[in-house]
Hints:
- The protein is built from 7 helices and 8 strands, in the order E-H-E-H-H-E-E-E-H-H-E-H-E-E-H.
- The chain is of the alpha/beta class and 192 residues long.
- Strands 1, 2, 3, 6, 7 and 8 form a 6-stranded parallel sheet that branches. It has a two-stranded antiparallel sheet with strand order 4-5.
- The termini are close together.
- Bound molecules: flavin mononucleotide.
Amino acid sequence: MSIRLLAFAASTRKASVNRRLIERLAHHARQEGAEVSLLDLNDFPMPLYDGDSEEANGRPASADRLQEMLASHQGLLLATPEYNGFFSPLLKNTFDWLSRPAADGQSGMDALRGMPVGIVSASPGAMGGMRALPFVRLYLNNLGMLVAPQQIAVSRAASAFHEDGSLDDEGQDHALAAVARQVIDLASLRAS
Ligand SMILES: Cc1cc2nc3c(=O)[nH]c(=O)nc-3n(C[C@H](O)[C@H](O)[C@H](O)COP(=O)(O)O)c2cc1C
């Protein structure tokens, strides 16, 4: 049976370069034999985390739905923008909510712990979001997730993609495929 991966960009911007990158990463994962569900976080709106709101209203239904999606997949592919050398607040908010208990009391952390993740970033700048990736790695490790060693940051992202979605830099496209392979390998090991 093929490995099922969930994939999303931590940007809700229409013209997001990270969405383009996650689409390419999903393509590579499919080439490697995985089934990939590509999500748009616009479909999973969550308010900025607030303890009083959680106490009054519980975890947002979108977080419960995203957790259900995670539970039916064996790994995750994630592309994040870099804001001032850090990852996007959308990524932090999404996973902070996911780490909280679900409405039915089910642990949020249990759903994240041990899940393999591949992390990549893209930006119009010269560093491609490279400075944000170590922080994403640390943050997801804190949630107990298994972050694949291979990662890539795509610089000058506005002109980095061909129309068919491939990366202009062939070496980077190969490195991107390696991210997909590592996540699939980790997910296969975990499933065996
Ligand atoms: C508040 C803010 C801070 C930013 N800081 C960085 C940065 O540190 N490094 C970088 O390469 N780009 C930075 N950018 C530019 C983003 O990389 C760019 O807006 C990118 O397109 C966002 O990703 P997206 O296209 O996937 O939404 C910043 C943008 C904003 C709005």
